[in-house]
Amino acid sequence: TSLLLMAGIMVAVGLCRRLTRRQLRSHRRLCTFLLEMFSTFQICACTNELCLLANVEPKPHTALTLTYGFTVLHGLTLPGSTCNPCGTLQLMWDGETSLKMGGLRIAAQFVAAALARAFMHFIWTLELAEPHFGALSQGCSNPMQISEVQAFCIELLFSVLLQMTILRVESINPKYKVHVIASLITMLVYAGGNLTGAIFNPALAFSLHTHCFYDKFLSYSLVYWIAPSLGKFLTLYVF
């Protein structure tokens, strides 16, 4: 049921993206906003559902396999969208998008993160699958199992590794590039998923752990917003 749900989300987002391109091509800002919002919604909604499958046996093989598979699918079905504020910062740094358009993209990503969280909460209330039972009672599902300083360093390191890899494989055929990036993300999730959640995406972190940002805003913004953004700038500065 969870796999069908995620597949349905991807199909619906694909249709919305295609319709947006056809109907709003002349409205550049609105088209950009909606495309980025739909794409980020897909990633956030699917990842929210994937988190419920983390304990499916055999552990952790099932969760890692699903992480790899859906990361590849996201890469193949969402071309042209960054779905990550850090990726948008890179476009702004390189001059590929203006400050105004970059801010519009980031706004779309956080709107999508909130919408995805609300949508998945509604789906979980329907209790369509066994993992949905009790999913809403978790509150702040704290992913940090180590100190804030250690979590900051890990998210910073993971962000640097991911961004360096993305920059190094830019010239590779997109069909192969998504597999390289998906493999790295899967390895990072395996290495740090039980420590910080290995998120390295500010919008995704907000969608997965919204309640935590309300209760512990400073610590969570430091680890899940500032660390990956700093990792992006360090990578761009080095290169």
TrEMBL record:
<dbReference type="InterPro" id="IPR023266">
    <property type="entry name" value="Aquaporin_11"/>
</dbReference>
<dbReference type="GO" id="GO:0005737">
    <property type="term" value="C:cytoplasm"/>
</dbReference>
<dbReference type="GO" id="GO:0016020">
    <property type="term" value="C:membrane"/>
</dbReference>
<comment type="similarity">
    <text>Belongs to the MIP/aquaporin (TC 1.A.8) family. AQP11/AQP12 subfamily.</text>
</comment>
<keyword id="KW-0472">Membrane</keyword>
<dbReference type="Pfam" id="PF00230">
    <property type="entry name" value="MIP"/>
</dbReference>
<dbReference type="InterPro" id="IPR000425">
    <property type="entry name" value="MIP"/>
</dbReference>
<keyword id="KW-1133">Transmembrane helix</keyword>
<protein>
    <submittedName>
        <fullName>AQP11 protein</fullName>
    </submittedName>
</protein>
<keyword id="KW-0812">Transmembrane</keyword>
<feature type="transmembrane region" description="Helical">
    <location>
        <begin position="217"/>
        <end position="238"/>
    </location>
</feature>
<dbReference type="InterPro" id="IPR016697">
    <property type="entry name" value="Aquaporin_11/12"/>
</dbReference>
<dbReference type="InterPro" id="IPR051883">
    <property type="entry name" value="AQP11/12_channel"/>
</dbReference>
<feature type="transmembrane region" description="Helical">
    <location>
        <begin position="181"/>
        <end position="205"/>
    </location>
</feature>
<dbReference type="GO" id="GO:0015267">
    <property type="term" value="F:channel activity"/>
</dbReference>
<dbReference type="InterPro" id="IPR023271">
    <property type="entry name" value="Aquaporin-like"/>
</dbReference>
